[in-house]
Batch of 2 targets.
Target 1
Amino acid sequence: MGIPKFPDVPPLNSAQVQALTEITFMRHLAKRTLPQYDLLFVFGSSHPEIWATAARAYHQGIVKRIMITGGYKANAIRHAGWTYGTTPEAQVIRDKLVEWGVPLHLMDWEDQSTNSLENVLFGLRKINVNGLSSLLFVSKSFAVGRQYRTLKKYLPDEMVIEAYPSLTTINKLPVTAWGWSQVAAHRAVVYGEYLRIVAYGKRGHILPLAKEIPGL
């Protein structure tokens, strides 16, 4: 049985809130250490903020190529603004980036994946990993911790992996590292991310946590 996107959240104390923030947002990964990265890896999503963030990274000149991931999953919860029917997410993101001035020849994509693990596994098959020394990835800000651990599991240890988070809205409010615990839906989605990190780490799908949060 899968983990709900918005699970019930137990009462959280301040130490647990701080630990959840550190594990799920991993804000230090957004402090970029390189002027340019070999690849921008875009995790599939129906949220417009994702492709807007990817376009921003390209136009800032900080990435050389772009790998876009994401298929179509019939029972997925999509952004309210999604109007693209059963079109795979990667195709929508690709076409949006072309509209916003990103050259098609700089992009690769896979359009069969239905979750983050498949995003990584299917996406990495499309590129020469041995030719990369650095990777910047686009994901929802509150999913950075899980996406980083997924990439880290399947990429060489010496590769630089850093984040270019997308500030994602839920119920018309952005989910932020400093305010998520004050909004019920945001508490649920962040707690759900933590549960996935724990569960997927134990399954061997992602880099596991060194230590779980006491009481959770």
Note: The helical segments are 14-25, 48-59, 89-99, 116-124, 144-154, 184-203.
Target 2
Amino acid sequence: MADERARHFRRLRRLRRSARRWSVLAGGLGGAAAVLTPYAGIGLPDAAWAAGAGGAVALAAWRWVDLRALAARPAPPALDPAEAAARSRARLVAAVERLPVGPGVLAEARRLRSRLALRGTTAAAPWARLDRAALTLAGMAPRLTGLAGPAVLEAAAADRSLRDLAERVASVDRALKVAPPEARPRLAEAQRALAGQLESGVAAYEALVAAAAGYVAEDARPSTEHPAASRLAEATDLLHGVASALAELRAVGDPLRAPTR
């Protein structure tokens, strides 16, 4: 949603410019009509000048009335700077998403921002491993169809859960640095438990990605020679045969090269 205060002042400026333009036009047409209208009477061309002047005067008057009515209204309150920045960022994100490569760029930017936010915590290394595994699985996802389809959905749910767990681990890590001494043993124990869950979850995710790679490899491997290789071999033999036939025809047409009896 656009800033209502900025929209109000833009509309005010447009009305002021429009009122001035119509006022100038009304003055010009009115002066021309006064000068060009003969004293003996009004002809058809003079009526056109007078009609144009009258219409311009009316439009100018309406514009000035609209301008005064809008200027009399109180301007909407200014946006909070944080809210204005959030709206500007949302508009920028929406503009980037409309580009052909926009979604991929935004996803990479969010990934980098999340990785930087976890830097210096025990969740940083498992997060990086999870990122690599998720990117690998995303590249194989179009080939994981049929019986492998539910595994892709399960992996997506696990990815969200593990990222939330990593953020929890990072939060406890930061809390340990500012916690009083008497509360640190309990927090450290909770942090170790969460970090262990994160490590085992990321390892399970990597095992799933390895299994998905095995499925893709087995699904693409034929029991015999690949069809593309056999087709290429047939095309090669055909080209060799055509080349030999052309060579024989050229030899028959050339008496110097034709075989003697």
Note: The mean pLDDT is 78.
